[in-house]
Design brief:
Layout: E1 2-3, E2 12-16, E3 21-26, E4 34-40, E5 45-55, E6 58-65, E7 70-74, H1 92-124, E8 137-144, E9 149-156
Antiparallel strand pairs: 1-2, 2-3, 3-4, 5-6, 6-7, 8-9
């Protein structure tokens, strides 16, 4: 997307990448764009948009990720500084908003506990049926021409416990900074 998030009268380029990087590029001169800000998300970004969403006068960037999470970055200051000995007083509106959010959170926690108990009871009954949930896998296998390697990227809307890579030919696995996996090697019986 293109949006004037910096408020300088010139639109910046908002980029959401497959590797989860959200980047803001500024066009300060006629040459190449300059990276002004970046933020790493834990999964690939499916869509990105700039605009005023949450509060008038403060622009935001919204990004939706592969699994459906919506992440927002705002220009609204989140910290207020007070003088020495000055107490920070919350407005009545802010106090009621915090109270409302706490009540909603408690209600959701109770609902989750009820649903867990309901699931436990139904799974232990003699008529219970078990099925593997259907989910889609977002996979990419791309060639990196700089070091003649391939990158395998797997995304699923649930936690990935194990990935098994089996090959008929010897392969070298390279570690990357964003990798959170623990690699273990085992030889395969050729028969």
């Amino acid at each position: 997307d293109s949006f004037d998030i910096l408020g300088d009268g010139v639109k910046e380029l908002l980029v959401g990448r497959d590797d989860g990087m959200l980047e803001i590029y500024n066009f300060e001169s006629a040459d190449d764009p300059v990276l002004r800000y970046d933020h790493a998300l834990s999964e690939s970004i499916a869509s990105i948009q700039g605009g005023c969403v949450g509060k008038d006068g403060y622009d935001e960037i919204l990004a939706s990720t592969y699994s459906g999470w919506l992440t927002g970055l705002t220009t609204e200051p989140v910290h207020r500084e007070g003088g020495s000995g000055e107490e920070l007083k919350l407005s009545q509106e802010m106090q009621s908003k915090i109270s409302s959010l706490r009540n909603e959170l408690e209600h959701l926690q109770i609902k989750v506990l009820q649903e867990r108990e309901k699931y436990q009871q139904s799974s232990q009954s003699s008529t219970a049926l078990s099925s593997v949930p259907a989910f889609s896998v977002n996979d990419k296998f791309t060639l990196n021409k700089d070091d003649a390697s391939y990158s395998l990227i797997l995304e699923v809307q649930t936690a990935i416990d194990n990935v098994l890579v089996q090959s008929d030919v010897p392969i070298d696995l390279l570690d990357v900074d964003k990798n959170s996996a623990v690699v273990s090697f085992s030889s395969c019986d050729s028969e």
